[in-house]
Amino acid sequence: MRGFLLCSLLLLAPHCTEVAAQEGEPEPKTPCANWMGGAPGYPGHNGLPGRDGKDGKDGLKGEKGEEGTQGPKGDQGEAGIPGKEGPRGFPGYPGQKGDKGEGAFIYRSAFSVGLTDRAPHPNAPIRFTKIYYNEQKHYDATTGKFFCTIPGTYYFTYHLTVYLTDVKVSLYKKDRAVMFTYDQFQKNNVDQASGSILLHLSSGDEVWLQVYGEGDNNGIYADNVNDSTFMGFLLYPDMD
Predict the structure, then answer these.
(1) Domains located in the chain, CATH noted
(2) CA 207, 204, 198 angle in degrees (round to 5)?
(3) Up-side HSE of residue 84: CA atoms within 13 Å toward CB?
(4) DSSP, res 224
(5) The pTM of the whole model exceeds 0.70
(6) Element holding 111 (H helix, E strand)
(7) Residue 232: its pLDDT value, please?
(8) Which residue numbers in the chain have pLDDT < 70?
(9) DSSP characters for 41-84?
């Protein structure tokens, strides 16, 4: 029995081979196809990407996140262009009155005098007895001398009318002549002799005018229409 089956299979094998040669590829699931399987094929190529889908709807708003840490301070920017001047404001209310300050000591010393007697005596202080100003009483009309009580720098000046004869006059400080003025009289005329000077005086110094020299040199004149004057005042005191 086994021999019969083997012979039958050997006879069928060439027949199946002829049928396969005549008809091409064997049909799948035929006894010949199941007898020997072929090698697996290669994977195919990837297909093209599909088109983007439609945008979906916005989701719900999320919760507020925590505040981040403060970053470092940035560099200072450039100054901007000045803005326009604003409108002027209303005046403020007056402030309270301040405390009274300490009073400052005011240094005053001045005089202005004129001549009343004609032709004063030479080599002696000229006594100007017409008083224009002598509030501090630093000028003595009885001696014709200014007495310094406030040390400092003083300004002195004089304007003398000259008539009938020449005039030689000098300004004295502490028994020493420091300035001289001479005017030569012209007949049938009235002349003027004047001078001015700055002097530094110490307390107790005296200043005056007097005619000097020998001879007829005392032509200083004064009447109701002509004056001869002498004046002086403190310019600034010594602060020490």
Answers:
(1) 110-237 (2.60.120.40)
(2) 40
(3) 2
(4) S
(5) no
(6) strand 110-114
(7) 98
(8) 1-37, 101-105, 119, 215
(9) PPPPPPPPPPPPPPPPPP-PPPPPPPPPPPPPPPPPPPP----P
